[in-house]
Design a protein that fits this description.
alpha/beta; Urease, subunit C, domain 1; TIM Barrel; 15 helices; 15 strands; binds zinc ion
Length: 400
């Protein structure tokens, strides 16, 4: 075999591992052979080619909606979640170059160093665009309908769509998923969360709690406008998290988790679910951020997503994490960057760690002569302006 050996001022092995200053990486094609201090890697594999860059594993965008790329910049925020949803639905109804925008969005993901995604889709058309760019992960096939009849109809239509679409592409899987507790009939939510991998938007804004716990507020008005009988509107849980906690598990992605009380945090921790933070979307829609230090202190597994271009300026995980870094400067940058190495959360377990024998995808962030003391803070501080180069591509896990 011909092994390529690279050395760099910083090599970051990924989730849970300390960085190597003056580190080295041995690659056989796209496969990692060894990562470690330069001297040891060179002793085993020969002299290394120096590159002026930080070497790191490819990234995960654990929550986006590729099929909304054509709505970039078209859905104003600031008025809360219900006005944003209604503006989104109206903009989506007007249509646009949906396929062209998805193709450009998938290329943006590749350029942002993304090897795996959690992509929420109503129509499954995003899969072909992701597969073309070599991006793995999960298509969360979203179902909604607040009454039993509507949720059943939505579920039937989705099952038919999956039959017609066929296999989603290499490294991709499809997981039926509920949209949210204010939009999806609760027994249908339970069925999907219990069945295996799934994603749900949860506790995004306080209005969601007002609806679940008191059957009032903007979401109550919304479901009545959508045709729910007023007599059918009643409180159904203490909080959005409490409404679903018994069905959450290690394969669930809980997206947003901004409005949490102490009991919610404890329930999330017990469930083993991964919380996906989308701070720039939260800032756009409601102006509130998730409480990162509290979630970290509770030991809840975390990931990062950009949400869609209808509420976020880009699909780049590092730019999303830079927003958290600015908002929570006391949290170590290394802790924040690790949120983008959560391949296991989206069904792509090799993504996020330069493990020998795996093909996680490897990136180089050019240093241009800089020698940062903290490569993680340097990555986040320059996230918006720095191109990432692929040194090796991700090889999707083979699925049964
Ligand atoms: Zn979303």
């Amino acid at each position: 075999m011909s092994v390529r050996v690279l050395t760099a001022p910083w090599v970051l092995p990924g989730a849970g591992a300390e960085p190597f200053r003056d580190g080295a990486l041995a690659l056989d094609g796209d496969r990692v052979v060894e990562v470690g201090p330069r001297a040891g890697v060179e002793a085993r594999h020969g002299g290394a080619e120096p590159i002026d860059a930080v070497i790191l594993p490819a990234l995960v965008n654990a929550h986006l909606h590729l099929e909304l790329c054509h709505l970039a910049g078209q859905v104003p925020g600031g008025g809360g979640l219900v006005p944003w949803i209604e503006a989104l639905v109206a903009a989506r109804f007007r249509g646009g170059d949906v396929e062209g925008a998805m193709a450009r969005g998938a290329a943006m993901l590749r350029d942002a160093g993304v090897a795996a995604v959690g992509d929420v889709t109503n129509g499954l058309a995003s899969g072909a665009h992701l597969a073309r760019e070599g991006i793995a992960g999960t298509l969360f096939h979203e179902i909604y309908g607040f009454t039993a009849e509507r949720a059943e109809a939505s579920g039937r239509a989705a099952a038919e769509a999956r039959r017609c679409a066929g296999p989603p592409g290499p490294g991709l899987r499809v997981a039926p998923s509920p949209h949210a507790v204010y939009s999806t009939h609760l027994p249908a939510v339970a069925g999907m969360l219990r069945a295996g991998p799934a994603s749900i938007h949860l506790a995004e804004v306080p209005e969601e709690r007002e609806f679940v716990a008191h059957a009032r507020g903007p979401f109550a008005d919304l479901v009545l406008r959508l045709g729910l009988e007023p007599g059918a509107l009643r409180p159904f849980a203490r909080s959005p998290v409490a409404a679903v906690e018994e069905w959450l598990g290690p394969e669930t992605l809980v997206v947003h988790a901004v409005d949490l009380d102490g009991e919610d945090v404890a329930a999330l921790r017990r469930s083993g679910a991964t919380v996906v933070l989308c701070p720039r979307s939260n800032l756009h829609v409601s102006g509130r951020l998730p409480d990162l230090p509290r979630l970290l202190a509770a030991g809840i597994p975390l990931a990062v997503g950009t949400d869609s271009l209808a509420s976020s300026p880009s699909l780049a995980p590092l730019e999303e994490l830079a927003a958290l870094h600015r908002a929570f400067p006391a949290v170590p940058a290394a802790t924040i960057v690790a949120l983008a190495w959560s391949g296991g959360a989206v069904g792509a377990p090799s993504v996020g760690r330069l493990a020998p024998g795996a093909c996680p995808g490897v990136l180089a962030a050019p240093l241009d002569g800089a020698r940062p003391a903290d490569p993680f803070a340097w990555l986040l501080d320059g996230a918006a302006s720095r191109p990432l180069r692929w040194l090796a591509r991700h090889g999707p896990e083979v699925r049964a």
